[in-house]
Design goal:
By secondary structure, the protein is α+β, with helices and mostly antiparallel strands. The chain contains 3 helices and 11 strands. The strands form 2 sheets. Strands 4, 5, 6, 7, 8, 9, 10 and 11 form an 8-stranded mixed β-sheet that branches. A 3-stranded antiparallel β-sheet has the order 1-2-3, with no helix packed on it.
């Protein structure tokens, strides 16, 4: 397919958390869009974590933009200039849940919102996780750890109780890998 042509680009916001750009673009059919917004946030790592008893380690967290609690797999953003997704995944799993694993597998990167966002969510599978500490949350985090049988986590995806794209994607990928 033919690409769009950018005729003008203006930075609207540029800080640690988000970059927002307003572009004027011309589509291959000559249609012009004068206010196409591109949003860049940091890449992140999401972890499908299963403990030694076959339970999935999830989190419940209030999400302001949706004004409700959402159930997700543990996840967190890359810090500035951070490039090692596995290190991010290990850090976030420990901080948010108190669990660690010696068995990690990279499942790939997902696109969260293909129309406007530019970031990737790197998904990891952590198997045979062990509880080694309490949570070490940032001041802005209030995370409840939920541990459910992995089959229940799959049901939660299918019933839309887990509706976050990367969480659902990761859980279903692991289910297929484990032939569940």
């Amino acid at each position: 397919m033919d690409k769009w042509t950018t005729t003008k680009s203006e930075s609207l916001v540029d800080n640690h958390w988000v970059k927002i750009r307003k572009d004027s673009v011309v589509l291959p059919n000559e249609q012009q869009i004068d206010d196409f917004y591109v949003i860049t946030i940091n890449n992140a790592a999401a972890i499908v974590a299963i403990d030694e008893d076959g339970n999935c380690i999830l989190k419940k967290e209030y999400r302001y933009c949706y004004d409700r609690d959402l159930i997700e797999v543990p996840a967190g953003t890359f810090e500035e200039d951070e490039t090692d997704g596995l290190a991010v995944a290990k850090r976030e799993l420990l901080e948010e849940t108190g669990y660690e694993s010696d068995e990690w597998q990279y499942l790939g990167a997902t696109v969260e919102s293909s129309a406007k966002l530019t970031n990737y969510m790197h998904i990891y599978f952590a198997n045979h996780c062990k509880k080694v500490s309490e949570q070490h949350l940032d001041a802005t985090e209030d995370v409840e750890v939920i541990v459910v049988p992995f089959e229940k986590a799959i049901e939660m995806v299918m019933n839309n109780e887990i509706c976050c794209n990367s969480s659902a994607h990761g859980i279903l990928r692991v289910a297929r890998m484990l032939n569940i």
